[in-house]
Amino acid sequence: MEKLVELLNEFEIEKPARDYTRRIEKQNKIRMCWTEYTWAYVDDEEAERIIISKKYKFIEWLVNEDKIDNSKFYDKNILKWFMTLTNKEKADSIIMNLSIQEKPIDYLISILK
C-alpha cells in the first residue's frame, strides 16, 4: 500500500495545476482527501473507484511512466499482443482488467514494478 500511496502522490504533483482539494464525503465524514501534497486516506471504496477510473488517468500515467510490470498479469501469449498496443490501449486494457477484480487495489499493487 505504501508504494501505491507514493505513486499517487507523485502522480498528483505531476498533474497540471488545479484545485488541490479533493474530498469524497460519505455520511458527513471525509473518507479520502487529497490536500496539496498527500493522500490522507486511500483504502475506501470511493478511493478505489477514483484510483482505477479512466477519468482520473492514474492508470494511464502508470503505463506512460513504465510503473506496471506487464509480465505479472498476462501470460506469455497475451503479453505478445499486449506489447503491440499503444500506451492508451494498454491503460484501457488494465482498467478493464481491474474492473473485474474482487479487490482491484490489491491487484493493482501486485502488478506494480
List keywords for this structure.
single chain; alpha+beta; three-stranded antiparallel β-sheet; 49% helix; globular
How many structural units, i.e. domains? 1
Shape call: globular
- Following the backbone from N to C, one meets helices and strands in this order, namely HEEEHHHHH
Gyration radius, to the nearest Å? 15 Å
Query: Main β-sheet: number of strands, strand sense, barrel status?
Result: 3 strands, antiparallel
Q: Residue-averaged pLDDT, rounded?
A: 76
Structural class: alpha+beta
Q: Strand share of the residues?
A: 5-15%
Q: What's the arrangement of strands in the largest beta sheet? A: 1-2-3
Number of helices, where a helix is a run of at least 4 consecutive DSSP H or I residues:
6
How far from one another are the termini?
A: 13 Å
In terms of per-residue confidence, which ranges show pLDDT below 50 for 5 or more consecutive residues?
Answer: 17-31
- Tell how many strands the DSSP assignment holds: 3
Q: Helicity level, as a percent range? A: 40-55%
Describe this structure as you would to a colleague:
- The protein has 113 residues and is of the alpha+beta class.
- It has one domain.
- Helix content is 49%, strand content 13%.
- The chain has helices at residues 2-14, 45-51, 58-64, 76-82, 87-99, 104-111; strands at residues 21-26, 29-35, 38-39.
- Strands 1-2-3 form a three-stranded antiparallel beta sheet.
- Helix 3 packs across helix 5.
- The longest helix has 13 residues, at 2-14.
- The relative contact order is 0.16.
- Mean pLDDT is 76; it is low at 17-31.
